[in-house]
Design goal:
four-stranded antiparallel sheet, D-Maltodextrin-Binding Protein, domain 2, Dipeptide-binding Protein, domain 3, single chain, Dipeptide-binding Protein, domain 1, alpha+beta, ten-stranded mixed sheet, 21% strand, 508 residues, 3 domains
Length: 508
């Protein structure tokens, strides 16, 4: 979606500060550099099973081809490295690979390329392991496992995956980097450090070189190389793209958000995300047991003021439980109680009998949430006259397990695959103690539906039920920003892929 048009406000002071970085960038790339340049923070790792940041995901989706890929327009999964992914019961899945596929070193992509990589993710305890244990729930999958009973090779092009319960979204999940293949030589050597520095994938771009300043990716079948420049500072990226010294910037500073239209015209985009931040309610706290109290608190929060203030235009106010980057089955505007309405909030709280005593807003300390939690607490004090207090703690998960949490607490969820139920299921395990059989049955029905489309209706009914009882009120969802120079075209991105490097080209 395009960022909304606003009055241009050029920040002239930033130009002086950025002269030195821009000069250094020019010296490094030169005005006639044929490569397409992208600014980004450095990836934590390029091991696909351990990818844990946006830059790593962006690069992984160019260096590897997964079993499925996500359609840029609809967000729906489509077979890629897989010729077919089938199941008679949505619990036992048979994956058949396309013939003739190879890694960039010429070695074949086989069933073991995938199954061996998946076992490595679990054995090594990489970041993607929870997708096997908690989301897909592969039979026998657990961190540290050296063998997984639910993964079985049938032949070089066929393998079988058995889950603990039916999951219609399993094929959609397979587009995550955690499920990407690894060459046999690396599976045998287990030299993960070397492979993480210079990975060999099966995708359209190969890693040509890597330094502290940049990662160069070259097309396997000819074309322009792409250089991902290490530029963690949003101001430096923005100014470089504005001057034409960088083709694509993946970060935009908060104070330039309103000037993007003036600076770039139609060469900017906000990319909806797949995560949502909530304030959830402990079911054991009697003062917060009434849905009307929770709804009043929700209506008292001015989400736009927070996203445009302490969150620096990097988030979008939530209007649903499902993140906007989940395109299949997504509906906008489902949470009417997410709209700021001070009068309705006061009336609802009065109808519920009021709320006395301190209202602690619990959150994990040291994660950068202090400013926005303070702002929300101020809003609740102003609008509802309740004694809202920020309450940072170390070990929020343990406090929830011990049931010592006595007020709303911060929850973040990230959908593992593009389907509404992938956003809703984590809320049932968010530590609220919420136990509603009707909602749980709807979520289970959506997960085991005959098709992904058939799972949309029960997921929507579950969302409506969750918004009615409001065990967690949605606050906002993070989005990414892209701005680009006049030289480049084909700038597209998705919540599950990041910037699509393989779609970039240069204007004729």
């Amino acid at each position: 979606m395009r960022s909304s048009t606003r009055t241009a406000a050029l920040v002239t002071g930033a130009v002086v500060v950025l002269l030195a970085p821009i000069a250094a960038l020019r010296a490094a790339s030169g005005p006639d550099d044929p490569r397409i340049s992208v600014g980004a923070a450095a990836p934590a790792t390029l091991l696909p099973g351990d990818v844990r940041d946006g830059t790593g995901r962006m690069i992984a989706n160019a260096v590897w081809t997964g079993l499925v890929a996500y359609d840029p327009g609809t967000g729906a999964p489509a077979n890629a490295a897989a010729e077919s992914i089938t199941s008679p019961d949505r619990r036992v899945w048979t994956v058949r690979l396309r013939p003739g596929a190879t890694f960039q070193d010429g070695t074949p992509v086989t069933s073991r390329s995938f199954t061996g990589a998946w076992t490595a993710v679990l054995r090594e305890g990489w970041a993607g392991s929870r997708l096997f244990t908690d989301v897909a729930r592969v039979k026998g999958a657990k961190q540290g496992a050296t063998e997984v009973p639910g993964i079985e090779v049938k032949d070089d092009r066929t393998f079988e995956v058995t889950l603990d319960r039916p999951l219609t979204g399993f094929p959609a999940l397979l587009g995550d980097p955690a499920f990407f293949p690894i060459p046999e030589s690396v599976l045998t050597s287990r030299d993960w450090t070397s492979y993480g520095r210079a990975p060999v994938g099966n995708g359209p771009l190969r890693l040509k070189s890597r330094s502290a300043r940049e990662i160069v990716l070259a097309p396997v079948k000819g074309g322009r190389s792409i250089v991902v420049k290490r530029m963690p500072d949003a101001r430096t990226q923005y100014a470089a793209a504005e001057s034409g010294d960088l083709d694509v910037a993946t970060l935009v500073p908060a104070d330039r958000h309103e000037s993007m239209d003036a600076d770039f015209g139609d060469r900017h985009r906000a990319v909806p995300g797949r995560d949502v931040t909530y304030l959830a309610f402990p079911g054991w706290e009697e003062r917060l047991a009434s849905p009307t109290v929770r709804q009043a608190l929700s209506m008292a929060v001015d989400r736009s003021a927070v996203t445009e203030g302490p969150l620096g235009h990097q988030y979008s106010p939530a209007d649903a439980l499902v993140a906007p980057g989940i395109l299949p089955g997504h509906r906008e505007g489902q949470c009417r109680l997410c709209l700021h309405d001070a009068r309705a909030a006061v009336s609802a709280l009065a109808d519920a009998g009021g709320l006395t005593g301190p209202v602690n807003l619990w959150y994990e300390a040291g994660r950068g949430d202090d400013a926005w939690v303070r702002t929300v607490a101020d809003q609740l004090r102003k609008e509802l006259k309740v004694d809202a207090r920020p309450h940072p703690v170390t070990g929020l998960a343990k406090a929830l397990d011990d049931r010592t949490v006595d007020g709303p607490f911060v929850v973040r969820t990230t959908a593992a695959y593009p389907a509404p139920v992938a956003a809703l299921a984590p809320l049932l395990d968010a530590g609220t103690g919420f136990d509603d059989g009707y909602t749980a049955r709807l979520v289970a029905e959506a997960e085991r539906a005959a098709t992904a489309d058939a799972g949309v209706i029960p997921a929507r009914l579950a969302e409506s039920a969750l918004l009615r009882d409001m065990p967690a009120m949605p606050l906002w969802s993070r989005h990414d920003h892209l701005v680009w120079s006049e030289r480049v075209r084909g700038v597209t991105a998705g919540a599950f892929t990041g910037l699509r490097l393989t779609a970039l080209s240069v204007r004729d």
